[in-house]
Design a protein that fits this description.
70% helix; mainly alpha; 413 residues; 20 helices
């Protein structure tokens, strides 16, 4: 929990205190938590200080995003320096694991940048900053993968894996096995890039353990029936369109066409409304997965499958489906809200089921694929989708198809 910051802090100016506090609020509560009242309470400054120093909330957010990007740039520079001696290719897995573990441990600046990407998905306000950060990330990964002599496409696969992994394993771990699960995923990802899939375990044990530990294999609850079900579906739609900040009883009532009293009667608190939205999404995605059966005779080139995936993730205007945006909100919120951890665990442990269907439809692969491979592809595709938020909407689908083609080719081609 945040505590009030004394206004006499000698090490920071008033402007710097506002940026530091906004960053902490973004990392712990998301965009909706950055309010004039919260900033005034925590910094001891007046409510008008944001306007005085930044000409408004958007100016403060831009300065906070820039400060986080600068911190991340310093971290990348330190990691790039470790490559100057020309590391052996076989050291890549340990280097990549250490990098991702540091990202998870040093989460706040990365969480701030993730909020920037979420905002860029729906609003152009900070899209330029998000695009600059995407370019900086890609440049770093081109340098790193070249140093380890990895194949073309490895930079894209690594950039998007690292982008997504924070939303899967970031924040305080639910269980000690989260680190083991991350390392198992990293090892397979790196083995695939080095063409050494046969040298790694096919166990996929930590993901399966997570599912069995919480009873998630058998726990797919039916969505509520009647009016409550309609309200939950409307809440999920609002969540995907407007984010957590826009998920209010009034907004859901307008979406579903019911009175405010009817929505509040079904779900009295905001927490219960958020959980209803998430439960609806989780039940819906399990229903879709359960009905997908790959056709063994349907084999397609990688580029064609990547295009199909891009079309599923972005429509012709570059908008992502509300359900996918809402699921992304769930993973972010679960880092901050313990009541949602179980829902996030379900999503983590179920990740990759649709990707398994896609892999089975590939026209060729260097080795047989399994559930852990599908989990890896799902991570990379999620990261690519988040990266695409930085682009103008009309560019997203084509860019994503090219990006996923490069990553799948490097990993499985």
């Amino acid at each position: 929990m945040l505590s009030a910051m004394p206004s006499t802090a000698a090490s920071l100016s008033a402007r710097e205190r506002l940026i530091a506090t906004a960053a902490e609020l973004l990392a712990t509560g998301g965009l909706r938590s950055v309010t004039a009242r919260a900033l005034a309470d925590l910094t001891g400054q007046s409510a008008s200080a944001v306007n005085y120093h930044f000409a408004g909330r958007e100016g403060l957010l831009a300065a906070t995003f820039e400060a986080a990007a600068e911190r991340v740039a310093h971290m990348r520079a330190a990691w790039a320096a470790s490559l100057r001696a020309g590391p052996p290719p076989e050291a890549f897995a340990s280097w990549f694991a250490a990098f991702n573990l540091q990202r998870v441990a040093a989460a706040p600046p990365f969480l701030v940048l993730r909020e920037m990407r979420h905002d860029a998905a729906r609003s152009p306000a900070h899209r330029g900053l998000a695009r600059h950060e995407l370019e900086a990330s890609d440049a770093f990964w081109r340098q790193a993968t070249a140093a380890f002599q990895l194949p073309p496409g490895a930079a894209e696969a690594c950039a998007d894996f690292a982008e997504a992994i924070l939303g899967i394993h970031g924040g305080p771990p639910d269980h000690p096995d989260q680190t083991a699960w991350l390392i198992e995923s990293v090892n397979r990802h790196c083995a695939r890039l080095r063409g050494a899939r046969g040298a790694t375990s096919g166990w996929d044990g930590w993901r399966q353990l997570a599912r069995s530990r919480a009873g998630l294999i058998d726990r797919v609850e039916a969505p509520p029936a009647g009016g409550a079900g309609r309200i939950a579906a409307a809440a999920a739609e609002v969540l995907g369109r407007d984010g957590l900040a826009g998920l209010t009883h009034r907004a859901v009532a307008a979406e579903v066409g019911l009175s405010l009293a009817a929505v509040s009667g079904a779900f009295p608190s905001r927490v219960s409304l958020v959980r209803a939205a998430f439960d609806h999404l989780i039940a819906s995605i399990h229903t879709v997965r359960g009905g997908v059966v790959p056709d063994p005779g349907d084999r397609r080139p990688i580029a064609e499958l990547a295009q199909e995936m891009a079309e599923a993730l972005f429509d012709a205007e570059g908008a992502a489906p509300a359900g996918l945006l809402a699921l992304d909100e769930l993973l972010s919120a679960a880092i901050r809200e313990p009541d949602l951890r179980r829902d996030a665990e379900d999503l983590r442990a179920s990740r990759g089921e649709n990707s398994a269907v896609l892999l089975l439809r590939m026209s060729h692969a260097t080795d047989p694929v399994d559930g852990l491979d599908a989990h890896i592809l799902s991570i990379v595709a999620t990261g690519a989708m988040r990266s695409a938020y930085a682009l103008e909407p009309e560019m997203r689908r084509a860019w994503l198809a090219t990006r996923i083609t490069a990553s799948i080719t490097a990993l499985f081609g």
